[in-house]
Design a protein that fits this description.
This protein has 2 domains: 3-138, Sandwich (Jelly Rolls); 148-279, Jelly Rolls (Sandwich), CATH 2.60.120.10. A hairpin with an 8-residue loop joins strand 13 (151-155) and strand 14 (164-170). The longest helix has 8 residues, at 22-29. The protein has a 7-stranded mixed beta sheet, with no helix packed on it. The protein contains 2 helices and 24 strands. Helix content is 4%, strand content 43%. By secondary structure, the protein is mostly beta strands. It binds the ligand O=C(O)C(=O)C[C@H](O)C(=O)CO and zinc ion (ZN). It holds the Pfam family KduI. GO terms for molecular function: 4-deoxy-L-threo-5-hexosulose-uronate ketol-isomerase activity.
Length: 281
C-alpha cells in the first residue's frame, strides 16, 4: 500500500490577497514539500482543480492511487497526468506498460488509465517524479516525451540577466492533451530573472517548481495583481501556485531551472497578457 498524503488549497480572491501577510501568502500559495522518499505527496488546488505533487520510490514501488477528494475509483477516471523525472533513471508503469524515464524526460498519461506505478532503477540515485494533473474531458494516448521530442525556445538576453531556454514537453504542438501543459525553463549562468517581462493569463492557472538551485541560494518569487505585487522567498524543490490573475516571475540569487505546469481555458502557450517591468507596482 502506497502512502499518499494530500492537502487541499482553496482559491483566493485577489482583493483578499492584498491583505495577506507573509504567513498567509505562504500558506495559500507555497508548496513547501513536494518530494519525500517512499511517499506520494499531493496538493490539490481549487484553481482549475490542478494537482501538483511528487513521487520518489526508494527500493519499493509507489502507486498513484485515487485520493478521497476525487471520489473516483482510479486517479485518472476523470483526469490526465503529466510526469517529468528530475532525478535518476526510473520507470512509470501505466496499465502494465513500462515507460523508462531518464532525468528530464516526461510522460503524458491519458484519462481512463487505471494503474500508474513509479519505480527507480537504483535506490542510491532514485527517480524524482514530479506530477501535475488536471481534469480531462477526453482520453488521449499515454505518450513519452524524450528530450529529442521537446520543443526549445530561446529567450532573454545576458545583459538583462534573463537569458534562458524554455523547453516544452506537454504542449499541443507535440502531445495531445486536454488542458494540461508542462515544460522546463533553464536559466543560463549569470541570468537570474525568469518570465521577465511578466504576464498574467486569466484563462489559465500555473504552478512553478524550482529546481537546480544550490542549497545556499534562494528564489524571490513575485506574485499577485501586477499593480499590487507580493513576494515569496523559496528554496530548491519548492512549488508555488499562481492564480490566473497573478503574475508569476522570479529572481534567484544565482541561476536555476523550474518546471512549469498549467491548466485552464486554452492550450495556447503564447496567450499571455504581458506587463512592462516599469509598470509593476
Ligand atoms: O521564463 C519564462 O518566460 C517562462 O518559463 C514562462 C512560463 O513558461 C510561463 O509562465 C508560461 O505561461
Ligand atoms: Zn505564465
Amino acid at each position: 500500500m502506497t502512502e499518499i498524503y494530500f492537502e487541499e488549497r482553496y482559491a483566493s480572491n485577489p482583493d483578499d490577497v492584498k491583505r495577506y501577510d507573509t504567513n498567509q501568502l505562504r500558506k495559500h500559495f507555497l508548496v513547501e514539500k513536494v518530494f519525500e522518499a517512499n511517499k506520494i505527496l499531493l496538493t490539490y488546488s481549487m484553481y482549475d482543480r490542478f494537482i501538483v505533487g511528487g513521487a520518489v520510490p526508494v527500493g519499493k514501488l509507489l502507486s498513484l492511487e485515487t485520493i478521497d477528494p476525487l471520489k473516483s475509483k482510479h486517479f485518472c477516471d476523470r483526469r490526465e497526468v503529466g510526469v517529468i523525472n528530475i532525478g535518476g533513471l526510473g520507470t512509470v508503469t501505466v496499465d502494465g506498460k513500462d515507460y523508462e524515464l531518464r532525468s528530464r524526460e516526461g510522460l503524458y498519461i491519458g484519462m481512463g488509465t487505471t494503474s500508474i506505478v513509479f519505480n527507480s532503477k537504483s535506490a542510491e540515485d532514485p527517480a524524482w517524479f514530479y506530477i501535475n494533473s488536471a481534469p480531462a474531458h477526453q482520453s488521449f494516448p499515454t505518450t513519452k516525451i524524450g528530450q529529442e521530442e521537446t520543443i526549445t525556445l530561446d529567450l532573454g538576453k545576458p545583459e538583462d540577466a534573463n537569458e534562458r531556454q524554455i523547453i516544452q514537453y506537454i504542449v499541443a504542438a507535440n502531445v495531445s492533451t486536454c488542458q494540461l501543459q508542462m515544460g522546463i525553463t533553464q536559466l543560463k549562468t549569470g541570468s537570474v530573472w525568469n518570465t521577465m517581462p511578466p504576464h498574467v493569463h486569466n484563462r489559465r492557472m500555473e504552478v512553478y517548481l524550482y529546481i537546480d538551485l544550490a542549497k545556499d541560494q534562494a528564489i524571490g518569487h513575485f506574485m499577485g495583481d501586477p499593480l499590487e505585487t507580493r513576494h515569496i522567498w523559496m528554496a530548491n524543490h519548492q512549488a508555488v501556485i499562481s492564480p490566473p490573475w497573478s503574475i508569476h516571475c522570479a529572481s534567484g540569487t544565482s541561476n536555476y531551472s523550474f518546471v512549469w505546469g498549467m491548466a485552464g481555458e486554452n492550450l495556447d502557450f503564447m496567450d499571455m497578457d504581458k506587463m512592462e517591468c516599469t509598470e509593476l507596482r
